[in-house]
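Q: Got a minute? One more chain.
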Amino acid sequence: MPSGRAFAPQSARNAARSEVVMHYRELPTPALTVDLDVLERNLDRVAELCRRQRVGLRPHTKTHKTVEVSRLQLERGAVGLTVAKVGEAEVMAGAGLDDILVAFPIFGAEKLRRLADIARTRRLLVSLDSEATAQELSRAAAAQGVTMGVLVEFDAGARRCGLEPGPALVGLAKTIEKLSGLRFRGLMSFFGNIWGTPAERRAEAEHVAERVGTALAAFRTENLPVEIVSGGSTPSAEFAHLIPGLTEIRPGTYVYNDLNTYYQGACSLDDCAVRVVATVVSTAVPGRAIIDAGSKTFSSDLLGSGPKSGYGYVVEAPDAPLIKLNEEHGHLDITPSRHKFYVGEVLTVVPNHVCTTVNMHDEIFTVRKGEAVGCWKIAARGKTR
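A: Always. Here it is, folded:
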């Protein structure tokens, strides 16, 4: 067995092999793993991309949900972090990290109180798109004696949240400026509509640029300064330079990448840093191989790009699609495969959607040159409130 620095993964704490560095194929399965060399390359590439395009990088932690990766992003020049939920913000703030954007319209007295509590010791930005949320956030801030920065969200075409670019945006910004405990800092949007092939993404980025321009023009008309214009996603990151006025982007998936990213041409398979390691546990049914990783291990999200079918890419047998997930069982269709499967065989699978896959695991094993060298707690997993 390889020798090296000891680590004690939570799920294998009682196993003798948890006390030494081991080959990733020796891990108790199913196991979530990340290749550190690939991760670091992904981090460096997007950090350099942002420098070249002269936009700030405020990565979304929703993909990795770990303090360790957040620190790696900040070390590479990120201007801050993005989260979606208060619980995620509490994890990052509790680890001493700062300048956090909550890119979700949080509502509810208990959650807003917790946000205000974070703002007592950390720089915090909150996005919203309604006066009702602004009023409640103001009450929470005033009760704690803090001031929170606010980004008003507008719809750049994704049709999820956000006001229509124009006067309504300006009106909400002016309302925010009058509310105690709040300070209007700028605008935010999600570029989820920038999706597809490189040509399709470029064309949609040009449409998004028009909507961003409309939003900013409305503020210029009212002589109201906009300090921050936050947008982006992983598929749109390379086109940030096509959107005048954009000051920062918020990609998340880029740290690990996944099949959706790959099939859009935004990364290669070699850029997919996360693998689920699973074991073949049955070949009894003709035409099937069953692995010990099902819907409690993988995301149930189907592909939104490429073939738009299946639940993952089996690295050792790409011609054996992962066609079905039960809770604990993953079904491989081995009918078309030339690979000879056997019980006890260890396989590695690239997930369709890495963000939701990571959220199902308590830990992620770090791998370097094929050896599992450590284990990170996924500290923000399950933080849905």
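A: Residues 1-6, 10-19 have pLDDT under 50 and may be disordered.
Q: Perfect, thanks.
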